[in-house]
Design goal:
The protein is of the alpha/beta class. The protein contains 10 helices and 18 strands.
Length: 357
């Protein structure tokens, strides 16, 4: 089968590799769609980060570069391994793409377990291959009513759902989101579904308008055009937002959130930082702000899938491109690296099926 494999930064190749099989306890999946994640871009530009370098196999997967990429995937069951009897061939599924020791799978915070990594980064195959074999524990069925292209966004939506859970926010609260890239707008989608008022700060006009048109933001401002902090205070009677979400990995955005949230408010850092930010932590001290980290998800997929199945989150507006595997770099990575203001989520079809839509 064909698969996009990471060798080292700026070196991703479309290879012909042996197709996987479903071993005991596994589910073999025909991959329909796989989203390109910011983590994939970081690996391409600066990696290996999550990918175990050649000569240094991962302690759980035992794999090293080259590895098949892709962790935001949807597909249909192609075959069931011995002992798997609660799924059916042809059933729609998504993958919770963790590489975790079996003894940690039932932990409350299994995303924080030692040597945790992700399928499609640390080994285990990947969604940028035509098929993947995954342990049943990490396979989640989705309703037939959910289209497979939208289902490919359930993984990043679960990241957003976990950020919401970490925030402790609830219906009636006001949230300010710094950055309306893929995770920013999906965080907005979860917050709206949970009954919050959502304010977005984003430089890209396309992304601001996408958030408004999709109905996931009540207000969207450009920090180049207005004082976002003043706008937040105007909208909250001078009080400030209850919660902020940092989704940009930009110093001034985090600093803005420290000003925009109310005293004793909460800021959740969702983005992955490639540098050490310079931030006025004195603001955090004087306002007794809680600054919280979040990574991945933990027991979030079932609730996230329900949001989609029940129509509380519509993922279609965030799909801005569909490409074949052969165009992964020139139409996928290049667009998201050099023209990211023009796109939200680009999906890849490893087999080429569905591109005629």
């Amino acid at each position: 089968m064909r698969a996009a494999r990471f060798y080292e930064n700026h070196d991703i190749r479309i290879d012909e590799i042996e197709a996987p099989t479903a071993g005991p306890g596994d589910v073999l999946i025909d991959v329909a769609w796989c989203g390109i994640c910011g983590t994939d871009l970081h690996e391409y530009l600066d990696g290996p980060i999550f990918v175990p370098p050649a000569g240094h196999p991962h302690p759980i997967s035992g794999e090293e570069a080259p590895v098949t990429l892709g962790h935001e995937m949807s597909g249909t069951v192609a075959a069931l391994g011995e002992g798997v009897d609660d799924l059916e061939v042809g059933q729609k599924v998504v993958v919770e793409p963790y590489i975790i020791r079996e003894e940690n799978e039932g932990d409350q915070n299994y995303q924080l377990s030692p040597d945790m990594n992700f399928i499609g980064l640390g080994g285990g195959g990947g969604g940028l291959g035509e098929q993947i074999a995954v342990k049943r524990h990490w396979v989640h069925p989705v309703a037939d009513s959910v289209e497979l292209d939208e289902a490919a966004l359930i993984e990043p939506l679960s990241v957003a759902h976990h950020a919401f859970v970490r925030s402790g926010a609830g219906a009636g609260d006001v949230a300010i989101i710094g950055g309306a890239g893929p995770i920013g707008v999906l965080t907005a989608a979860v917050l709206k579904a949970e009954g919050l008022t959502v304010i977005v700060s984003e430089l890209s006009e396309l992304r601001r308008q996408k958030a408004l048109d999709a109905g996931v933001a009540d207000h969207a401002f450009s920090p180049r055009e207005v004082d976002v902090v003043e706008k937040v205070k105007e909208l909250t009677g001078g009080r400030g937002a209850d919660v902020g979400f940092e989704c940009s990995s930009v110093d001034v955005v985090l600093d803005m959130l420290l000003d925009a949230v109310r005293p004793a408010g909460v800021i959740v850092n969702v983005s992955i930082w490639g540098h050490e930010p310079k931030v006025a932590l004195h603001k955090l001290v004087m306002k007794e702000i809680d600054l919280r980290g979040t990574i991945g998800y933990s027991h979030d997929h079932p609730a996230t899938i329900r949001l989609v199945e029940e129509g509380k989150v519509d993922l279609r507006p965030f799909i801005t491109g569909k490409i074949g595997l052969e165009h992964l770099i020139d139409e996928g990575f290049d667009t998201l690296i050099n023209h990211n203001e023009t796109a939200v989520k680009i999906l890849v079809s490893p087999t080429g099926k569905g591109l005629e839509e």
